[in-house]
Every structure is written in structure tokens, then in C-alpha cells.
Amino acid sequence: MRIGILQTGHAPESLRAAYGDYPDMFTHLLAGHGFDFVTHDVEAMDFPASPLDAGGWLITGSRHGVYEDHPFIPPLEGFICAAMEASVPVVGICFGHQIIARALGGQVEKFADGWAVGPTDYRIEGRTYRLNAWHQDQVLRPPEGARTVGCNDFCAHAALIYDDRAFSVQSHPEFDRGFIVGLMQTRAPGLVPEPVLAEARARLDLPTDSNAMAARIARFFTERR
Fold first, then answer.
1. pLDDT profile of the chain (225 residues), mean per 10
2. Residue 97 known to be catalytic
3. What's the confidence (pLDDT) of residue 225?
4. Distance between CA 221 and CA 198 in Å, rounded?
5. Which helix (H) or strand (E) holds 133?
6. 97 Cβ contact partners less than 8 Å away, ≥ 6 residues apart
7. Which residues pair with 107 in a beta bridge?
8. Do the Cβ atoms of 145 and 162 come closer than 8 Å?
9. Which of 31, 68, 93, 212 is deepest in the core (most CB within 10 A)?
10. Do the Cβ atoms of 54 and 4 come closer than 8 Å?
11. Is 135 an annotated catalytic residue?
12. Are 69 and 146 in contact, with CB atoms under 8 Å apart?
């Protein structure tokens, strides 16, 4: 099955030699599940010709906010709607989670209570997943037709499902410990408050459930429709 990765941003250049860019992380995360991958850098306006060009679509994270004025955001929202109308499954991660919700009429904003960083526990579909987080923006109101299937005390809509058409999570199962440390060194200064970073550092060695979430994402892509 071919998965099209819709790349909406880039990892910090200083970290790419060690960790790759976002499509590399997802290729690694979903390795062993029978997929091959094609990447479209939609941030650079490289869009697929049709939602039918792949068996499923995965929307990456980004440093951008979905409510910001960037040329790629309106056509990406249109592509999401077209893919869902064509019953091609869509998975969204962080920014991807938010842009699916916004494309369908949900509300996304900077969360007044601040940032989530590092290993974070979420209750998703009846089980606890510990996954790396890196976000301030949140889905504050899901769109009509979305069902909240994941949350914690900080993030009320941490995972959403749209029947068999889309599945999205606010967390970053593709980020490992080293990459989170790298983000704390490169993107956090002056942006993320030090007490949040200190709490994250104290949790960095906790194991995560990235492989379990990868299996959940793979099942979503391969479910009979």
C-alpha cells in the first residue's frame, strides 16, 4: 500500500543529519507494516494531482499554525476534504491533527495554558499511550462528524476519529528522545517557558508507546472500507 506523506514543515536543519526530516521519521515509524511512501512537500506547494494517487495520506507536523496566512494552507484544506469525500484514509499528526479539524469547520487556537513537551500520557480508545508532545496549539472545538477518542487533563481533544475517513493525534509518535532533546535546544529557547522544559527533562527517560501508535495508524490505513 502506498502512503502519501504531505509534508507541512521541516525539522531544524541542525538536527536533520542525525534524525532526518519529518518524512524520514514516519518512514521509520511505520516500517514493517507493508507500506511504501511518496512525499509531497506541500509547504513548498508540491501537491498530489489527485487524492487517488495514494492508498492513504499522512499529514505531518509543522512549526506553522493552521490559522496563519500561508499559501499552502487553503489548498491543503481542500485536498483533505477531497480525500475524505473519495474515502481515501487520512491520518494527521500534530499540525495534521489540527488542519483536518480546521478544514472541516473545527476551532484551533493557541492554548491559553501553554505548552506540552516531552513524554505525555494520553487516554486513547480505552488505553493509555505515552507519546512525545511538542505543541501549544490545540483543537478547542472539533468539527461536526468528529468523535473525540483521546484526551488528558491538558488536552481535551488529543485524538479524533472521523468514521473510517480520518484519524488524528495531537502527539508526535514519530519523535524519539534524542529529537525532543534537539528541539529543546534549538526551538525552545525564548519560546517554551523554562519550567515546562524542566518538567519535560525529568520525564525524558520514560519509555514511550510509539510502536503501539504506529500499529494503530497502520490498522487505520489498512481497514476494509
1. 98 97 98 98 98 98 97 98 98 98 98 96 98 98 98 98 97 98 96 97 98 98 90
2. no
3. 78
4. 37
5. strand 127-135
6. 139, 159, 160, 168, 169, 170
7. 141
8. yes
9. 93
10. yes
11. no
12. no
